[in-house]
């Protein structure tokens, strides 16, 4: 039993031990779990404690990164904005005041927006704050910072003035409170009419005027073709109207009418370059209005919720006044010329026009930027140009000739040009030493013809002949006008002719035969030239020139095209004073005989300076036909040379080598359209001697020299005698040069031997004789020596005999007397016959001395001696004298 109990107890013990062991194991496992759990908890707690710190650091890092990226982006955006702003407001539209200077927009370039301050963004380079004005809109200013508002107004106006060509911005000020004080710095613009003020109460009329300008510009300038002046400028490169900026600084409440007008200007102004800068006057809502609020707490563009800006300081006062003074000075000095190339067609279209119905070419730019054209044809046929000296007549003639010459080929148009004033600018049309080119249309250029009115006469005679030729051809073809003649005779050469005479009043001055004939010829040409394509363009600087015409209303009436340069008098009709207010380099063009309705104002490009002109001339010259000849150049100041004279070059020994039957002595150049020599024929006929009369040694020698040399050219050597007697030491060098050049054919005589020459020649007259020319220099000085008897007769008697009988025996006297009275004395006294003087050249011998037997009619020729000119008269062939220019010394 005990055992059982013992066994039982043992089993219980074992079981309990087992249970204890298991419990212990579980406990230790639980404890281990607990420890691990605690550790985990501690870890978790530790980790949990570390989380906010890390996340915060990460967040801060992220924020810093974002900050940095944001600043870079802002800086980048600001830089781009600044770049864009600089492009939008180039040059002086956006430049700082330090070193600021006007930079007018180039042709067709938009003026851009104008800077008034900088956009407020911290930490970046400043971004210009811009306000659109010119061609864009209006600016409305408000706010309690009056100084800020004033700074914006000054900045806007100065930048606007600087962005446009001088004169292209006009300011109109309305400042009833300060009476213009708000715009004081801009006052110098007033001297050029670029700033005007309207007084208190003037707002209504000012707005009316702006509305009227807008209406006019829309109607006549934009004319439905363009939506705005900006568009017109972009398309044509021209800006025909100025910008008008009205600056309205405060004032009374607007009445209904004024508000209505203001609304119209706001709505329609910008397209027409009419803009408002307004302070203290409400403007209606409109997309073109930019509102600038300048408050003491800051400024904003775009209204009170707009962009915050820091306003620029106002431009320095001296900068404003100096800029305005400079702009005004430039405007007062006149606008820069439009380019001459504006008048020319593109090269590929040159010489394409047909002149059958007339000649049309632009002469300059009209106020609306459109070309102003001049036409010559059946109507108007002729033109009158007037303007005081220096106003640009010569330039206008260049411009017109250039515009025509570029359009019409030389087969369609020819020019003849005569300049009565001193100057050589027209010489450029002919071939020169410096420039081998010439204007292919130019047939004749006469320069420095101020004293040689005969040249003008010669041109008119030439044109009259041409007129006759054309009229005859027209009659033959039974037509009346040039256009018809050209149609029925397409192969004929019928160009239109334009004859330009500058300072033409010189031609008509005086009451002598030249003036009378010139006026008659002009009248005839003006009347009949119209239908035959001969057009006259007369220019004059002075009213007297026109007065020469006023006496002939029929002549004046033909000149229906009038061109008046600034301050020209009486070119236009009596009540038409448009020329009086013309700016420099402008002209009133009027094809209605000067009546007001016909006025067109043109701005004339500069065409006459050498470089501008020669570009065109060279181009046209290269286009000329291979057989084109250069224009004849007549220069009244030049002394022609015998060796260059075509008539001299044409002289030659007869082909059979014998003496010529009809030798010719050339005496000088005739004042004529063609280069011709005055020639004296010396056939075997009574009276064929020459007297040169006057005291001028050089000219007298030149006449005898040319005569002798031209005669010598026609005689084979050894077949003619040239006896040279020189009795004036001053003439000695020239006479001796002649003697030496004539070599073996010449013999020399002086005071001692001249008597022998007379005796021997007179005695020889009975024989058959070879040609003998006696060249007597200052023969009157030999009167003493010739008074002595040589045999039966005195030397003078022998001289008279030679002159009387010699020519029929080929012995001719070519003698210089230093006065008409001295010649008469040598010929036998005051009443002596002068038949043996068949021809004479008067130098400083007056017309009235040449009367009686030397010249037909009474009172002698109209001859007023002048330097290096002579009057030649050959009674065998002429009815009136002919002015000649002696040839210059031959060596
Ligand atoms: N449209 C123009 N634009 C710029 N300059 C001009 C223009 N017209 C003339 N000029 C300049 O003015 C000056 C005088 O001009 P121009 O010789 O044509 O005058 P003018 O009336 O013929 O004078 P004058 O009768 O005294 O010769 C010249 O130097 C010329 O280059």
TrEMBL record:
InterPro entries: FtsK/SpoIIIE/SftA (IPR050206), FtsK_dom (IPR002543), P-loop_NTPase (IPR027417). Residues 369-574 form the FtsK domain. PROSITE patterns: FTSK. ATP binds at residues 387-394. Pfam families: FtsK_SpoIIIE. Residues 92-111 are annotated as: Disordered. Keywords: ATP-binding, Nucleotide-binding. This is FtsK domain-containing protein.
